Structures are given as C-alpha cells and as structure tokens.
Amino acid sequence: MIHTPSSPEPPASAWTTAATVTPAAPPLEGDRRADVVVVGAGFTGLSAALHLAERGADVVVLDSAEPGWGGSGRNGGQVIPGLKDDPDDLERKFGPETGRRMWEISGGAADFVFELIARHKISCEAQQCGWISAAPNASAVAVLRARVDQWQRRGAPVEILDRQRVADRTGTTLYVGGLLDRRAGVVQPLAYVRGLARATREAGAAIHGCSPVTGIESRGGAWRAATPAGSVTANTLILATNAYTDDLWPGLRRTVIPVQSYQVATHPLPEDIRRRVLPGGQPVSDVRRILYYFRLDPEGRLLMGGRGPLNDTGDPALFARLEAVAARFFPQIGAPRWEHRWSGRVAITTDHLPHLHEPRPGVLIGLGYNGRGVAMATRMGKLLADRVLGASHAELGWPVMPIAPIPLHAWRLPVMSLVVRWKRFQDWLDARRSA
Length: 435
Ligand SMILES: Cc1cc2nc3c(=O)[nH]c(=O)nc-3n(C[C@H](O)[C@H](O)[C@H](O)COP(=O)(O)OP(=O)(O)OC[C@H]3O[C@@H](n4cnc5c(N)ncnc54)[C@H](O)[C@@H]3O)c2cc1C
What we know:
The chain is of the alpha/beta class. It has helices spanning 43-54, 87-94, 96-107, 109-119, 138-153, 163-170, 189-202, 271-274, 316-329, 373-388, 393-396, 412-434, and strands at 30-39, 59-62, 78-79, 131-135, 158-162, 177-181, 185-186, 206-208, 215-219, 222-227, 230-239, 257-266, 284-286, 292-296, 302-307, 338-348, 355-360, 363-367. β14 and β15 (302-307) form a beta hairpin. The longest helix has 23 residues, at 412-434. The structure holds flavin-adenine dinucleotide. Residues 2-3, 39-45, 62-65, 69-72, 74-78, 80, 212-213, 240-244, 246, 248, 261, 263, 305, 343-346, 367, 369, 371-375, 377 line the site of flavin-adenine dinucleotide. Flavin-adenine dinucleotide (FAD) is lined by residues 2-3, 39-45, 62-65, 69-72, 74-78, 80, 212-213, 240-244, 246, 248, 261, 263, 305, 343-346, 367, 369, 371-375, 377.
C-alpha cells in the first residue's frame, strides 16, 4: 500500500482561509541523482532538507501531495516543548547522559522553532506567548506539580497556576489548576510549513509535490526512490512520513498507530467575547487521558480539538460533539456559527517517544510525535540532518532505535477503540470524583 491522497491540497480548515503562499513544487519528471532524497514534505522532511541544504548538500524532497498536506499543514499550531516523559523519567529510562540530552533537545524544541522562524523570516503569526497544560482534577494537578518541579530544577521557565489563574487566563472555569510553560507558543501551521518549504528551496533543495514514492531499492551502495514519472538516486534516504507512513519500508507502518484528531473552528468571535475567551492568548491542552486542546487563531476564531475514532469516518456527529464541548467550556460564546471542521492523523508510539531509526547504512527515519510534532518534528529534522552530516549516534543525543513493529497491529482498530473507551471511562470517573 502506497500513500496516495485523493487531493494534493490540504483539507479546507481555519488555516487555508488565510492567504499563505503555496510553494511551487512541480512533480518530479525524469531520473536524477542527489546527495540526499527525503520522502515527506512536512516539518520533519523540510527541516532535514533545509539544514542539509544550508550545509551544501544536494537534496531532493518528494511528497505524494503538496508540501504541508499532512499533519504539518492542519494541526492546532501549538508549539509545545518536552515529551510525555518528564526529565527524571528520561534519565531513569535512558541513563543520566542520554536522558539529559533527550530532555535538553525536546525541552529546547520550541525555542528551536521560534529561532528558525525568525532566522528565515517565515511569516506565520508566530508568538512565543507560553502554553497552558490544564488539569481537570486534583490528581492531575499533582502530576503537573511534579513536572513543574523537575523543569524548574533544570532552569526552565515553567510554573504552576492555581484554579483562579487558569480561569483568568483561559476564560473557562472547568479546570482546577494548570502548568504555564513560557518556552511554548503558537504558529499558523500551514503558513509555517509553507514558509519552511520556501526557505528550503531558497537554500538550494528541490521540492516535488504530487510525486508519491512507489518503491525504494538499494543500488550499488546508493538508494533509489521511484515515483510514477521519475526517480532520485542518492547516497542517503530519509523517510519523514509520520502518521501517513505506508509500506515503503518493511515494518515501519506497524511501528506507529495512526489516530485521527479532529478540530472545529468558530467564525471570528466579536471583540467583546474575544476579551473573555483565552484572554491570556496562550493555547491550552488538557491532561485528560483523551485530551481536548484549544486556542484562538489570529483572526479570533476559537479552535477546539480532540480525539475521535482511529480512522477518518467523517461522521458529522463527532464534530458536533466537539462543538458542544466548546460551548460547555465557554458559555460566553453563546451559539456561534461554526465555520470549519477538519481532521488529520497523529502517530502514536507505544513508548510515547518520537523514534529515530537507521535500519540500514544510508537510511534514516524520524517519526512518532504523539500529537506533539510542531516543535519536535522540526527538531527531529535537524537531528536527521546532523546524522547525515557525520554526527555519531553518541553525538546525536537521541537514541537510535530498532524498527519494532507493534504486535497485533492489524487489530489496532478494535483494540484501540476499547482502549479509548476505557480511558474515557477513567476520565469520567476522575471528573465525578473531583466534582
Ligand atoms: C488535527 C491535528 C492537530 C494537531 N495539533 C498539534 C499541535 O497543536 N501541536 C503539535 O505539536 N502537534 C500537533 N499535531 C501533530 C503534528 O501535526 C505532527 O506531529 C507533525 O505535523 C508531523 O510532521 P511530519 O513532517 O513528521 O509529518 P507530516 O506533516 O504528516 O508529513 C508526512 C508527509 O509524508 C507524505 N508521504 C507519506 N507517504 C509518502 C510516499 N510514499 N511518498 C511521498 N510522500 C509520502 C505525506 O503526503 C505527508 O505530506 C496535530 C496533528 C493533527 C492531525
């Protein structure tokens, strides 16, 4: 199975309404050579290509659709540092040295994005305004307190918010506490990924859209990626296909569970209401097992996101449920006109970590951002570029993991729908206990 989207353009969303320049990315025609061929033109692939091209490498990026078609052009635009594992967990699991490098890399990933945006003058409404991780109950506050303590010990600008301060900053009274991380912020994700494509091209890389890679083969020490109308043969192959990973590389698709994430957006809210909804300007994600995330977009639309079934059913009831959640969180919006509904896939890994693989010499893979790829996928691209440019595994500071397909992957839909139901039930129990 090869990933071939029905349309090369990303789905209509709050992001596609803004006038962002679509990068020219003509399909690949003919056979050519390069130093590096990258499959996937999202944050991971473009960041890898940009950092390589800046160092003089001849790079070709191929995507089945337009650059940014995948998660990168349709996400919530929340630029969040860190991982699900806290710094102490990373040091315990990976040892003090690798663990430290991992929290430094992931903790610095949002700064990395904002610096990249500034350096390449990418116009994408970027604001390093902080992010709130909101706790719906007391036990979640305890988890956030421990997290804050760990990051503060390491000098990060992270603080705990009590119930009142969360309500003041978000405009909803449904949370009992929160964490404010001042390293984080927001971008207009489609504008960011398109700006990244522009910068990548200006650095000298070629980007070809509508060029699905249909096969990969090893030829005399090089790698050949074939598309319907051409091929690229290169010393190094980078796969950056995240939740849209297909069967190009044996077993890779089965290392992640693609899960659909849904978003809805109101029409731009009137000024008086906007002053009472997220007045602090920070995006929010909560720490429910099945989370909700929300923010205002630059035009003042309220965006609400959440998880639904694993596959894209397009069921209107799912979106209606999210709209009802938004109205419950923010009674001050009344009954707004809902302007946009869209969804996309996030790639979940069983250890909740982004994975870097090097299954054969000259083949590098980065994926599995667990719904937190705006910062980390961009940073992963730089890790992949560093490796191509000669960094040793030890110098990378990120573990290079074997490809380990998830057992019973073919059964992921029924298994995960049971898991999701169980988690929703636990969230409901937590809500009742803290009511
Ligand atoms: C609805 C939604 C909301 C989200 N919200 C947030 C958020 O607020 N904050 C956050 O940090 N993260 C969020 N994420 C996650 C984030 O968007 C992703 O982690 C990130 O975009 C991954 O980037 P990527 O470059 O690795 O993959 P993608 O951007 O998905 O790019 C993969 C590309 O590979 C291409 N491809 C696949 N197979 C082939 C092939 N055979 N040949 C050629 N091309 C191929 C696809 O066409 C696609 O363009 C969200 C995701 C979704 C879907």
